Amino acid sequence: MDLLSFCHWIxxxxxxxxxxxxxxxxxxVESVHTLGIVxxxxxxxxxxxxxxxxxxxxxxxxxxxxxxxxxTLWGFCVMAFTGTxxxxxxxxxxxxxxxxxxxxxxxxxAGLNALLFHLTVYRxxxxxxxxxxxxxxAGWISLVxxxxxxxxxxxxxxxxxxxx
Amino acid sequence: xxxxxxxIFAGLGGSHIGMAIRESATxxxxxxxxxxxxxxxxxxxxxxxxxxxxxxxxxxxxxxxVARELxxxxxxxxxxxxxxxxxxxxxxxxxxxxxxxFWIKMCLLAAALAFHFAIHRRVAQSDPPVRPWRQKLVAxxxxxxxxxxxxxGKMIGIYGDDLRREPPPFQVRIFMRQPPRLYETAAAALxxxxxxxxxxxx
Lengths: 164, 202
Known about the structure:
heterodimer, A: mainly alpha, 76% helix, elongated, B: 2 domains
């Protein structure tokens, strides 16, 4: 199945039809997806700022990560769900959108960065004296990637498939 | 009532910067992206302060310390939004003037800003902490007000200039057309003394 026929299929699922035909459903899903940024990128930024020594300096890195990451993960589930639903409503119209494609690639990179951080340098967090250079690097990469993800996401509405 | 703000809308909309943004899709997108990034930093850090006050954030750490550590980021995010917001307004001042949710957002924003600087900051950074039920009340009000501001901002984009639309959509009927009638009823009730009050409950 190629990309376009996948788009046609997802557009014709009940969820895709519903969000296209009901303004109320669209408003709710769109609002949840936008405000979800606060829970996902907001908590990620705080962890990054802690790693870079720019915020929450008095709290141990481990506490910051343990308290914030559950919010990030639950928030991300909601974002993935609402994001896919929004896509389902207009898949064949926006699947060519550069903003969307860039956003998906950056999301994969951000996920990889977080995974590597947790599997390598963060494993020895108990032995850290200060924040190791590799952890700071992960913080910078995450900060830049998530800024670009938000920018790419917003730019979808200004790309092909939209009048504005 | 809206008319007294016309000079602001005309001034911003007619300014060079407003016209420059309006003519470039890139600049329009850029102001919105910056506004969203400000929101992420502001509400992200505020969320953590309020969660801690509610007892579901940093449980083992004093809320006052977390609040003080995050205060610079809350302020930074707020400044970014208070700069990019008027820029967005200047690029679409006509639409905003006719958008019910723009006015709802501004009312909520005024309330949220006053609450934030007059009450929230003091309570959150208070050492020794205020009583738990007060912390929770302030945190709940703070989140309610700011998410209200954010949601009504999103609604400006969704509903656009709905104030002139016929028939008026539900949010116009509820928020914009009802208040004068409610006000008249309330005024009549006050004038008539107690006899007028049943009119209010109708």
